[in-house]
Amino acid sequence: MSAVFFSLIGVVVGALLTLVRDIWADRRTLGRNARYLAIRVVCILDKYVEHCAEVVLDDGLSRGQRDSDGCLRAQVSPPDSPVFPQDVDWKSINPELMYQILSLPNEADAAARRVDAAWEISDPPDFEELFEERQYQYGKLGLTAFALTEEIRKKYRIPTPNLGEWNPVEHLTKARVQVEEDRRKRYEQIAASPMFLNSPAI
Q1: Which is nearest to 69 in space by CA: 59, 60, 56, 77?
Q2: Would the CA dihedral through 55, 115, 83, 93 be positive or negative?
Q3: Cβ neighbourhood burial of 72 (10 Å; 0-12, 13-18, 19+)
Q4: DSSP assigned state of 123
Q5: Class of residue 44 by CB neighbours under 10 A (exposed 0-12, middle 13-18, buried 19+)
Q6: At 54, is the secondary structure helix, strand, or coil?
Q7: Is the pLDDT confidence value at 4 over 70?
Q8: pLDDT recorded at residue 25
Q9: Region of residue 52 (phi > 0: left; psi between -120 and 50: alpha; otherwise: beta)
Q10: Contact between residue 154 and residue 94 where contact means Cβ atoms under 8 Å apart
Q11: What is the reported pLDDT for 11?
């Protein structure tokens, strides 16, 4: 009886050890897959952040000069919406983080549509609405992408790149704040204008 009992205990313990080993191996594989995904995504987002910063710095001048018609023209093409790899295990990362990453292309597409709409109402020679909307939208997108890289780096222990004196986040932040301040002042001026004050209530 005791021999059978100890044999049964041995079988149970062996099964448990096998289960624990398999769980540990699965978690280790999942962790490697998650870090591999994180590294690839961060590299894509780092490049995207820099490209957004280049857009917000675009003042429409080519070597300090307007075009032959005396107009400002965009010198930097906007970045394409981020394209993330399909050959990675997206289920290996937190669902909320996955959603934030995969929803960024939709946000980028919406921003591009707003910039296109601003282009439709912009007039030469300065195309003020266009350049303002470009700065605002790509400043916002760049900062969103940067916040994602910070979260991913912290979670998966990925080092920060050395960009020297080039600080894209500083330019993105400055551009967004400047546009928001300009718009606030413009709205205040409109609200304080006699035409607005004397307009009939709807």
Answers
A1: 60
A2: positive
A3: buried
A4: -
A5: middle
A6: helix
A7: no
A8: 43
A9: alpha
A10: no
A11: 58
Query: pTM of the full predicted structure?
Result: 0.81
* Structure tokens belonging to residue 202: 């709807």
- The amino acid that residue 39 corresponds to is I
H/E segment holding residue 131: helix 128-156
The token pair at 40 is 């690839």
Q: How many whole angstroms from its chain centre is CA 76?
A: 19
Rounded Cα distance, 73 and 9, in Å: 79
Q: Which residues face 62 on adjacent strands? A: 65
| Of the candidates 102, 114, 95, the residue with the CA atom closest to the CA atom of residue 44 | 102
Please identify which residue in the block is written with the tokens 């204008």: 193
Residue 92 has pLDDT above 50, yes or no: yes
The position carrying tokens 């549509």 is 113
Residue 185: C-alpha distances to residues 36, 156, 178, 180 (Å): 46, 42, 11, 9
Write down the residue that tokens 């007039």 correspond to: 123
> Which DSSP string do the residues of 58-98 spell out, in sequence order?
--S-BTTB--TTS-----SPPPPPP---SSS-GGGS-HHHH
- Residue whose entry in the numeric block shows the structure tokens 């304080």: 192
> What residues pair up with 65 in beta bridges, in sequence order?
62
Residues in Cβ contact with 71 at an 8 Å cutoff, skipping those fewer than 6 apart: 60, 124, 125, 126, 127
